[in-house]
Amino acid sequence: MAQQTINTISPNELLAYALRLKNANYRLVAISSSNVENGIEMSYSFDSGNDFVNLRIIARPGDEIESISSIYSYSFLYENEIKELFGVNITGISPDYKDKLYRISVKTPFNAKEGDNNG
After folding, report:
1. Domains in the chain, start-ordered, CATH in brackets?
2. Which of 27, 45, 59, 65 could form a disulfide with 40 if both were Cys (CB 3.0 to 4.6 A apart)?
3. How confident is the model at residue 118 (pLDDT cuts 50, 70, 90)?
4. 18 φ, ψ to 5°?
């Protein structure tokens, strides 16, 4: 029977959790983000067989999120996108596109607050 788990973790727990999942033969399925009242909700989704595991982080202004690209190399695209579009401070991305993944005229367009001149 398929099972889905959501684990809410702190930013500093991400690498350890990701490494445990990698060592247990889980694959990274997606990393998604959404604005929530107290920051940016980031969901790292993994699966193995019929098991689906989500690691959920609330990235608050000033938080530093360490990239998991050293564990799951293909995460760099998700992480560059989230960094550029939402303004989440993700460090250690390899390769880091330095906010040049997209040609956009607005800085962090998905993190624009009411009253901002971001669009």
Report:
1. 3-108 (3.30.460.80)
2. 59
3. very low
4. -60, -40
What's the CA gap between 81 and 31, in Å, rounded? Answer: 10
- Could you identify the residue written with the tokens 């980031």? 42
Helices (H), 62-115: 75-86
Task: Report the distance separating Cα 87 and Cα 116, nearest Å.
Answer: 14
Please list, in sequence order, all residues whose beta carbon lies within 8 angstroms of the beta carbon of residue 116, skipping any fewer than 6 positions away. Answer: none
Let me know: does 38 contact 59? Beta carbons within 8 Å. no
Query: What does the pLDDT look like over 68-107, one tens digit per residue?
Result: 999 999 999 999 999 999 999 999 999 998 888 888 888 8
